[in-house]
Design goal:
18 helices; 3 domains; Rossmann fold; 418 residues; alpha/beta; 4-stranded parallel beta sheet; disordered N terminus
C-alpha cells in the first residue's frame, strides 16, 4: 500500500505545469515566478550537484534526459552545472563572457531536468532562473545568439521569424475554407503552420469546417512572440504580446483555438503570468478541442486509420503546460490506429531539439536531439511519429532519413477520417 501511495503522489502534476509533485517531508520554500535573476540567487544554493537531473528518475531505465548535456558531454551543460554558473555570476565570482552566455543558450528549455530533480525548490523553480539568466545575458549585451538576433529583427518588422513577408502569411488558405466574419472564435494559425507546415493549417481549418464551427482567422495575425521571449528578449516579446492582445480584443475574439504548442503556451501562460496581460480570451489547443467534441458527441470518426504510431509529447504543451492525456485520448478513439509508447514519454519525454532558439543557433545540437528521438520512435516499430506541434513536426521531417518513419500531426490524421 505504501508503494501505491508513493506512486500516486509522484504522478500528481503541479498546477499549470506538466511536472509531477516531488514527494517531500518538508514544506517547500515558495517564491514568485517570472522574476529577475536577483530574486532567485539564494534558492540556487539548494542544488546538491548530485547529477539526478541527467537521467530519468527511477523510470524508463534511468535513460538520459538532457540533449545539451548529452551532446556537449560537459558538466556546465547539465542543470547542475548551470546552477553552479548561475551561483558564480550572482555571487560576483564569475563575469559574463560570450562563451558563458552560449552555455545557457545551448538549451531547449524543455524542463526535463526539472522533472528529474528531487530537491523540491529546484524541481519547481529552476526554469525561472534559466530564463532569468537569458534575460540577464540580453541586459549585459551577451545575448541572444547572432542567429536569434537576426530572426528577432525580422519578426519585429514582418511578424514572423522565418524571413518571410507578412503579406504572404495567409497564402496557404484555400478558397474552399469557410469563415464566419463576426465569429467570436479565432483559429490562431501560428508562424510555423503559416509558412512551413501548411498542411497542419489546412487540416485544422477543414476540421473546423467539418464540425461546423463558426470561426475566423484574423487577417493581420502575427507571431505570438514565443521565439523572441524564449531567447530572453522580454521587452520586445512583451511589445508583441500587447499588440496581439489589443488586436484580438478589438476584433471581439473570445476564444482562440491553436494547432501550435508554442502559441498555446504563450497565449495561455506567458501573456497573463509573465506579462500581466489578463486578456480573458479562452485558449484551447487542438487536441483539447477535439476531445471536447468527442465527449459531447459532435465528433465521430467515420473511417479507419490503419497504422501503428507513437506519440511525441511537445515540451510546450507537456512539461510546460501539463497536456498529456487529450492527444492520447483522441488517438485511442481512432478506429484501426495502434498507439505504441516510446520508453521516454509524458513528463519524461525526450525533447525534439528545436525549442528555445536552439535550432537556429546550434544546429548540430538540434539535429542530435531530433535523431535521438527518431531512433527511439523507430524502436517501437511504429510507422509514424505523431505530435501536436508543427515545430516538432518540421524538426522530425528535417531529420528523418530515407523515409524510415513518417512524421504526422494529429490534425492531419483526424482530417482524413471525419
Amino acid at each position: 500500500m505504501v508503494g501505491v501511495i508513493k506512486i500516486f503522489q509522484r504522478l500528481r502534476y503541479m498546477k499549470r505545469m506538466g511536472l509531477t509533485h516531488v514527494d517531500t517531508r518538508h514544506e517547500i520554500h515558495k517564491i514568485e515566478r517570472h522574476q529577475d535573476l536577483e530574486h532567485y540567487k539564494d534558492i540556487i544554493y539548494q542544488c546538491g550537484k548530485c547529477g539526478t537531473c541527467r537521467t530519468v528518475y527511477q523510470d524508463a531505465d534511468w535513460a538520459a534526459v538532457c540533449p545539451s548535456g548529452e551532446f556537449r558531454k560537459f558538466e556546465s551543460y547539465y542543470l547542475g552545472g548551470k546552477n553552479l554558473l548561475t551561483w558564480g555570476l550572482t555571487s560576483g565570482k564569475l563575469k559574463w563572457t560570450e562563451h558563458l552566455a552560449s552555455i545557457f543558450y545551448s538549451c531547449t528549455v524543455c524542463m526535463a531536468c526539472l522533472q528529474q530533480c528531487q530537491i523540491p525548490e529546484i524541481h519547481t523553480y529552476a526554469v525561472e532562473w534559466l530564463m532569468a539568466m537569458r534575460e540577464e545575458a540580453v541586459k549585459q549585451g551577451y545575448g541572444p545568439m547572432p542567429e536569434q538576433k537576426l530572426y528577432t529583427e525580422h519578426t519585429m518588422v514582418e511578424n514572423n521569424p522565418y524571413m518571410e513577408k507578412h503579406g504572404d502569411r495567409l497564402n496557404w488558405l484555400p478558397s474552399h475554407i469557410k469563415q464566419t466574419p463576426d465569429a467570436k472564435t479565432a483559429y490562431y494559425v501560428g508562424c510555423t503552420s503559416s509558412y512551413r507546415e501548411q498542411n497542419v493549417a489546412v487540416a485544422t481549418a477543414e476540421i473546423l469546417n467539418s464540425l461546423q464551427v463558426d470561426f475566423r482567422i484574423h487577417p493581420n495575425e502575427s507571431c505570438c512572440g514565443s521565439p523572441v521571449y524564449m531567447t530572453g528578449q522580454t521587452e520586445k516579446a512583451k511589445k508583441i504580446a500587447e499588440e496581439n492582445v489589443k488586436m484580438f480584443k478589438d476584433a471581439g475574439i473570445e476564444k482562440i483555438i491553436t494547432s501550435c504548442a508554442g502559441c498555446y503556451r504563450t497565449w495561455k501562460d506567458t501573456y497573463p503570468n509573465k506579462f500581466g496581460l489578463n486578456h480573458g480570451i479562452e485558449v484551447k489547443h487542438l487536441p483539447e478541442f477535439l476531445l471536447d467534441k468527442l465527449k459531447n458527441g459532435e465528433l465521430n470518426f467515420s473511417k479507419e486509420f490503419n497504422m501503428k504510431i507513437t506519440y511525441h509529447d511537445p515540451c510546450h504543451i507537456g512539461r510546460h503546460m501539463g497536456i498529456y492525456k487529450p492527444p492520447r485520448q483522441v488517438l485511442e478513439k481512432i478506429p484501426g490506429l495502434e498507439l505504441l509508447e516510446m520508453k521516454r514519454n509524458r513528463h519524461n519525454a525526450w525533447c525534439c531539439g528545436s525549442g528555445g532558439g536552439v535550432r537556429s543557433a546550434f544546429k548540430d545540437l538540434s539535429a542530435f536531439a531530433a535523431n535521438e528521438r527518431i531512433e527511439e520512435a523507430k524502436e517501437t516499430t511504429a510507422e509514424a511519429i505523431v505530435s501536436c506541434c508543427p515545430f516538432c513536426l518540421n524538426q522530425f521531417k528535417a531529420n528523418i532519413k530515407n523515409n524510415e518513419i513518417q512524421a504526422l500531426d494529429l490534425s492531419e490524421i483526424v482530417k482524413q477520417i471525419i
